[in-house]
Write a structure and sequence with these properties.
3 domains; 11 helices; two-stranded antiparallel sheet; Arc Repressor Mutant, subunit A; 11 strands; about 25% strand; D-Maltodextrin-Binding Protein, domain 2
């Protein structure tokens, strides 16, 4: 393995390797790295020699990490996160809003006029020199990114809190139960018939939530499909073969077009708590604290 002191060359090779992993291959990584696939392959081979381990399989079967490669990649992520944290801490010690802000939010949230969007607008006005990095992820991926220090803050819907993370409520959004054209519920208005059709309907399950706890209507409903992001749920509903929960502001895109409608005149709507998540026992710098304060101010 690498000696205690890392050289600039070591750090560069680790960066190249991490970029290849995130791009899922040498060819895809060439755009990010601005070098040829053959050069990238040589650099990864140099890193393998330096470490004394095989990092990945490449060839006609595609790119795949080895077990040691996965370990090196995750360790490199933590290393780069520590470097970013050091830089941000130094910037914050000067009482200046400079450096970086990395935030992950739930996917398809641009449709929601939220404390986040208003806080981000204000933050950009008062901290124009800060570099902002935004990720749109599923809730589980947000928590993992915060735990691994790939992002500093996450905002989303989290029903099962993970140890090592802190969760703060920043407000609520409504989700509703929807069907689309082609589903028997789409034109049905009789409450009794709605209940009967519901029992026979296929339910699009949200893989990132414990549905039985957060959506009681799903108990007992048949399901043979689940999605890891909100957009996947929307795709399933739009087939006209499933019912499922969507944020109301997102669903309104298709409701206005006449392609989707709320099941049972909104009687199955649910409030969903939005939370800000960060790593426990981490002292954040002025940039992060400023953005946190803005989020809380606009959610009050």
């Amino acid at each position: 393995m690498l000696p205690p002191s890392l050289s600039k060359a070591d750090l560069h090779l680790l960066f190249v390797f991490a970029t290849v992993v995130e791009a899922r291959g040498f060819s895809a990584a060439q755009i990010e790295l601005n070098v040829s696939p053959s050069t990238i392959s040589r650099q990864v081979s140099d890193l393998e020699i330096r470490l004394g381990v095989k990092l990945c399989q490449r060839g006609r079967s595609g790119f795949r990490l080895t077990e040691k490669g996965d370990l090196v990649y995750r360790s490199a992520q933590r290393l780069f996160a520590s470097v970013r944290e050091f830089s941000e801490t130094i910037d914050g010690s000067r009482d200046q809003l400079v450096g970086n802000l990395s935030v992950a939010v739930i996917d398809n949230w641009a449709f929601n006029v939220s404390p986040f969007s208003r806080a981000l607008q204000k933050f950009i006005d008062i901290a124009p020199e800060v570099t902002i990095e935004l990720f749109s992820l599923a809730p589980d991926d947000i928590e993992m990114a915060v735990q691994d220090a790939r992002v500093t803050l996450g905002i989303g819907v989290f029903h099962r809190h993970k140890p090592g993370l802190l969760y703060d409520s920043i407000g609520f959004e409504k989700v509703g139960l929807y069907c689309a054209i082609g589903h028997p519920l789409f034109h049905e208005r009789n409450d009794l018939k709605i209940q009967g059709i519901l029992k026979k309907s296929l339910y699009a399950k949200r893989a990132y939530l414990k549905e039985r706890d957060v959506a009681p209507i799903s108990r007992g409903l048949a399901t043979n499909a689940h999605a890891h992001q909100i957009e996947g749920i929307a795709h399933l509903i739009l087939t006209g073969r499933y019912i499922g929960y969507l944020p109301k502001q997102l669903a309104n895109v298709w409701v206005r077009e006449g392609r989707m409608r709320s099941v049972g005149k909104d009687q199955f709507d649910l409030p969903t708590e939005l939370k800000l998540v960060k790593k426990r026992s981490v002292e954040h710098n002025l940039v992060v604290k400023t953005f946190e304060d803005l989020v809380r101010t606009f959610s009050a």
